[in-house]
Amino acid sequence: MESQTEQPEEQKEARVLTETSLLNLGKAVKQGDMKLYMLLNIPTVEIVRQKVRNEEFKMPEYGAAQKLLLYWKKMRKGAKENDIIRDLDNALRESGQEEIADIVSDRNRIDQEIVPELFVSA
């Protein structure tokens, strides 16, 4: 007998994966370096498309990073959150952004969003 009050497994999104967190992360990651996005398995065509659009509209360089991280999140829809967070952590570390990976891991551990103030250190 199945209970009608059962909730779907997907209840609450991890705070480090919210749109706000990914937009803030997009400002903090190494700009102009495509390695992160390639490690996240974003198609090269999409990476180039976002970079070209960014230049066409004379947007700040981090605009492409933000759009690519949001695209990646959409691409991973349906995957387990722990896998998504682990992949983000691995891609950040492998692209030489260990400090940012540490921040993402710490914020995930305490279930808090990524905020710009975390990246203002010297």
Automatic annotation (TrEMBL):
> Gene3D superfamilies, per this entry?
Death Domain, Fas
Q: Which InterPro entries match?
A: DEATH-like_dom_sf (IPR011029)
The protein's superkingdom reads Eukaryota
Question: What is the name of this protein?
Answer: Death domain-containing protein
Q: Which organism is it from?
A: Macrostomum lignano
**Source organism phylogeny:** Eukaryota, Metazoa, Spiralia, Lophotrochozoa, Platyhelminthes
